[in-house]
Amino acid sequence: MATHLVSGSFQVSSKPARQPTCEFPHALLHNSSSHISVSINLKRRQRNFRDYASKYGTIFRKSSTWTSQAVLGEPGSLEISRNNSSLEVHDKNGLLMLKGLTFEGLEEWCVSKGEKPSRALQLWRWMYYDNMWMRCFEDAAGSSSSSFGRAFRDKVEPLATVDGGLELADVHEASDGTRKLVFRVSEGPAAGGKVEAVLIPILRSSGRKERITLCVSSQLGCAMNCQFCLTGRMGLGGNLLTAQIVEQLVEARRYLASVGDKTPITNVVFMGMGEPLHNLDAVLAATSIFCHPMGLHMSHNKISVSTVGLVPEMERFCRESSAQLAVSLHATTDEVRDWIVPVNRRYPIHELMASLRSLFPSQDGAGSTRRHVLIEYLMLRGINDTEDDARRLLELLEGIEAKINLLIFNPHVGTMFAASTDEQIARFRSILIQGGRVCTVRDSRGDDQMAACGQLGDPVQRGGPLPPILAPPARFREGFGGGAGAPGEGASPGPT
């Protein structure tokens, strides 16, 4: 793969951020047709940038001030600069993508163009609240709700766009009412690919829809190579921009309105394609935009961001966001987690648990309102679902304010794994509840349309070499037939 170093001027810290290192370095590189030109004017020492970018081409982090990303790919269209509050991203036509700005960033931009700060609120409400159907400034002409004068439109149209860099290409509806939205990406590192979001209806006992949870993506593909996940089989195709994450919610609301569905989207979960904390800047900005009271008006308590456990990024996320954190643990020993969640080789279980213990300390009598971490645990037959695993999980979570969510495995073509039986899941959950933990079992939703957890994406669309299938630990190899099949009934051969 050809490597094109990012152009531009960085003022960066002298020590690069740690990277999740696994046995598939190519999976940590962005494979993109776009190229970012970055210009940041901050007073930091300029050291190690060129060598580091050429080696990793991924996340740069300054713990307290800013993060950005370098993208490997052919020279292309995207340009990024920074004001004091947020990254300014320009599309292939050189227009500023306003949906990539936080409210504070939008205020600064408006003032820099000779407008009053109040213009930012007008724009903000126009993009996210009053005029959901309007996709460009031309649509505001003659709109009494926008009150944009011709002089302002003439000024801003050559400078900025409200396009989110996504186009709704297809909708797949499952038998249970779950709907998968397939988006074509038109801007940024993931341009040319397709990403997916999922509308999950939450039903009342009567069967009526009460609300909807939207599952959003943060990347095209994923670099983490979790062995049970179809998205992980893609490798990383590129990070989504802030505007593209935000646009998933905007487009989802447009879609529901277009089909006459008035059920509100009350929750957003970053559990779609990608590792959200591997694209942390965009995710932090998107959660800020989601929760602004004069726009999309989501609650931080109703937004959950899931991670496989990138410890430094996880700690920064908890400092800078009030959204909920979910950690995909999936194993109770390093032997198993090194295999099925390879980033564990960089941040092993003891380091991950120590970090969670400091971020979410448990206190007697604190009550359920304390901020807690959600532990996600995928039940894989014969791999991590024994009663000993349940008891080890209780031990690992000592001193951590946590709730546990057991996940049912959703199969896909070529998988090496099988779902635990209902009886085994019930026994596992019973041990956790007896140990004093709140434990729920997440139903599979949308699996008949490949819309369920672990089923999003298409490795074929990315092209090029795929991340490797890792050999199982020795004690599992007999059940896997040397690593090519899953234990239990209904196993299918793994990809070659």
TrEMBL record:
<keyword id="KW-0408">Iron</keyword>
<feature type="region of interest" description="Disordered">
    <location>
        <begin position="457"/>
        <end position="496"/>
    </location>
</feature>
<dbReference type="GO" id="GO:0070475">
    <property type="term" value="P:rRNA base methylation"/>
</dbReference>
<keyword id="KW-0808">Transferase</keyword>
<keyword id="KW-0963">Cytoplasm</keyword>
<dbReference type="Pfam" id="PF04055">
    <property type="entry name" value="Radical_SAM"/>
</dbReference>
<keyword id="KW-0479">Metal-binding</keyword>
<dbReference type="GO" id="GO:0051539">
    <property type="term" value="F:4 iron, 4 sulfur cluster binding"/>
</dbReference>
<keyword id="KW-0698">rRNA processing</keyword>
<dbReference type="InterPro" id="IPR048641">
    <property type="entry name" value="RlmN_N"/>
</dbReference>
<dbReference type="GO" id="GO:0030488">
    <property type="term" value="P:tRNA methylation"/>
</dbReference>
<dbReference type="GO" id="GO:0046872">
    <property type="term" value="F:metal ion binding"/>
</dbReference>
<dbReference type="Pfam" id="PF21016">
    <property type="entry name" value="RlmN_N"/>
</dbReference>
<feature type="compositionally biased region" description="Gly residues">
    <location>
        <begin position="479"/>
        <end position="488"/>
    </location>
</feature>
<keyword id="KW-0004">4Fe-4S</keyword>
<keyword id="KW-0411">Iron-sulfur</keyword>
<dbReference type="GO" id="GO:0005737">
    <property type="term" value="C:cytoplasm"/>
</dbReference>
<keyword id="KW-0949">S-adenosyl-L-methionine</keyword>
<dbReference type="InterPro" id="IPR040072">
    <property type="entry name" value="Methyltransferase_A"/>
</dbReference>
<dbReference type="InterPro" id="IPR004383">
    <property type="entry name" value="rRNA_lsu_MTrfase_RlmN/Cfr"/>
</dbReference>
<protein>
    <submittedName>
        <fullName>23S rRNA (Adenine2503-C2)-methyltransferase</fullName>
    </submittedName>
</protein>
<dbReference type="InterPro" id="IPR027492">
    <property type="entry name" value="RNA_MTrfase_RlmN"/>
</dbReference>
<feature type="domain" description="Radical SAM core">
    <location>
        <begin position="208"/>
        <end position="448"/>
    </location>
</feature>
<dbReference type="InterPro" id="IPR007197">
    <property type="entry name" value="rSAM"/>
</dbReference>
<dbReference type="InterPro" id="IPR058240">
    <property type="entry name" value="rSAM_sf"/>
</dbReference>
<keyword id="KW-0819">tRNA processing</keyword>
<dbReference type="GO" id="GO:0008173">
    <property type="term" value="F:RNA methyltransferase activity"/>
</dbReference>
<keyword id="KW-0489">Methyltransferase</keyword>
<dbReference type="InterPro" id="IPR013785">
    <property type="entry name" value="Aldolase_TIM"/>
</dbReference>
